[in-house]
């Protein structure tokens, strides 16, 4: 072990001992000043406390050593990554990435800026083909599949920067997602055969049903680009849901939302999981959201997994604290 690493460990141990000794009042005061544990600082910054957690899932270990919600223990995981990696030139953007997401789990992928989180989503959706490793979607190996194919098989995503068709209506944006499900042949479309009208009716019915999940059915005719930012983010989720996914990937769904919108979003993500019985893997910097609804969490730093576990385990992990905040300079 190098000297620098020894010093870091020493500093961490000292900080941990000090935090353990501190009274609740002094912990809160130090956290408010931007010191103390990551968990305490997050609580001070966001007002988060254990009471705000919206899920109390019992996680159980699989033979592979990964944890999933107890209810999913005997079901094929929605998503598994084994030793996944991609290089960009000399940069190992993602290296030896392992992940298991239970059939109906809400899982979190977190890490500092540039850690490789969006790159993992790009690998899962085949925007990039992995340099190394395996991805299993509902038990099926997706090696060499295209983006379209994995979408058909059940993986859907939203993007860090909203990607809607801004000049189309809200309903038309959802219909684009539905084309994966409801089919009518080319000739039926050209000649407006009865099958075409049946499919159109079905598109319309399903679109409104999906928009209703977010209470947006009454905005079906609005132009997507004219919606407020938070509503556009919700519409992107609805469009992803329209492809009938088994796994929904959300890349920073709360970015740009105000606290009340974020709070509604948390309820809606749980609702989506319950209603559609799917897995959700989300990337998010808002720790209130992550710790509030995620059941299992994986932490990336410089392309590598540095921690995984329940929200409690992750928040207490010194490597996570260091990755986010650096070792704290605690004065005596
Ligand atoms: N196509 C690419 N070519 C070269 N480098 C890339 C490419 N895509 C991503 N990277 C690099 O990979 C690293 C991880 O980027 P990524 O966008 O996955 O980070 P992130 O964790 O999503 O960060 P943020 O929280 O800021 O969104 C960065 O160093 C980025 O510059
Ligand atoms: Mg990103």
Q: Quick one: biggest sheet?
A: 6 strands, mixed
Catalogue the ligands: adenosine-5'-triphosphate, magnesium ion
Tell me what the CATH architecture is: 3-Layer(aba) Sandwich
Number of domains: 1
Q: Please provide the count of β strands.
A: 12
Helicity level, as a percent range?
A: 40-55%
CATH fold-level topology: Rossmann fold
Cα distance spanning the termini? 26 Å
The CATH superfamily is known as P-loop containing nucleotide triphosphate hydrolases
User: What sort of overall outline do the alpha carbons produce when their principal axes are compared?
Assistant: globular
Average predicted local confidence, pLDDT? 83
Low-pLDDT residue spans:
1-8, 13-21, 31-41, 43-51
Oligomer: single chain
Rg value: 22 Å
Briefly note the structural class of the backbone: alpha/beta
CATH top level label: Alpha Beta
Strand content: 15-25%
Strand order of the largest sheet: 8-9-10-5-11-12
The H-and-E topology, N to C, reads as: HHHEEEEEHEEHEHHHHEHEHEEHH
Describe this structure in words.
This protein is α/β, with parallel strands linked by helices and 332 residues long. It has one domain (3-154, 245-325): Rossmann fold. The protein has helices at residues 3-21, 24-32, 38-46, 117-124, 147-153, 170-178, 186-190, 194-213, 229-241, 259-276, 287-293, 311-315, 318-325, and strands spanning 59-61, 67-69, 79-88, 91-101, 106-110, 132-137, 140-141, 155-157, 247-251, 279-283, 296-301, 304-309. The strands form three sheets. It has a six-stranded mixed sheet, sandwiched between helices. Helix 10 (259-276) links the parallel strand 9 (247-251) and strand 10 (279-283). The longest helix is centred in the middle third of the chain and has 20 residues, at 194-213. The protein starts with a helix and ends in a 7-residue tail after the last helix. Magnesium ion is lined by residues 117-118, 160.
């Amino acid at each position: 072990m190098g000297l620098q690493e020894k010093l870091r460990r020493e500093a961490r141990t000292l900080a941990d001992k000090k935090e353990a000794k501190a009274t609740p009042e002094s912990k809160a005061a130090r956290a408010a000043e931007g010191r103390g544990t990551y968990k305490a600082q997050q609580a001070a910054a966001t007002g988060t406390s254990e009471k705000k957690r919206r899920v109390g899932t019992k996680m159980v270990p699989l033979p592979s050593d990964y944890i999933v919600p107890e209810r999913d223990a005997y079901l094929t995981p929605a998503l598994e990554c084994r030793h996944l990696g991609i290089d960009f030139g000399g940069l190992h953007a993602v290296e030896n990435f392992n992940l298991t997401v239970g059939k109906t789990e809400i899982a979190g992928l977190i890490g500092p800026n540039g850690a490789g989180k969006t790159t993992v989503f790009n690998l899962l959706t085949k925007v990039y083909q992995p340099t190394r490793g395996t991805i299993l979607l509902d038990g099926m190996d997706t090696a060499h599949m295209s983006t379209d194919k994995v979408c058909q098989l059940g993986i859907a995503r939203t993007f860090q920067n909203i990607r809607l068709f801004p000049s189309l209506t809200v309903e038309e944006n959802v219909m684009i997602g539905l084309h994966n499900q409801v089919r009518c042949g080319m000739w039926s479309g050209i000649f407006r055969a009865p099958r075409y009208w049946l499919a159109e009716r079905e598109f319309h019915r399903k679109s409104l049903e999906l928009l209703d999940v977010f209470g947006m059915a009454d905005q079906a005719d609005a132009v997507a680009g004219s919606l407020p930012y938070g509503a556009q983010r919700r519409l992107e989720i609805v469009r992803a849901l329209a492809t009938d996914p088994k796994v929904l990937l959300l890349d920073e769904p709360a970015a740009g939302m105000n606290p009340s919108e974020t709070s509604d979003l948390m309820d809606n993500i749980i609702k989506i999981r319950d209603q559609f019985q799917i897995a959700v893997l989300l990337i998010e910097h808002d720790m209130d959201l992550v710790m509030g609804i995620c059941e299992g969490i994986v932490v990336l730093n410089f392309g590598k997994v540095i921690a995984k576990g329940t929200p409690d385990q992750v928040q207490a992990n010194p490597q996570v604290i260091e990755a986010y905040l650096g070792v704290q300079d605690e004065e005596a």
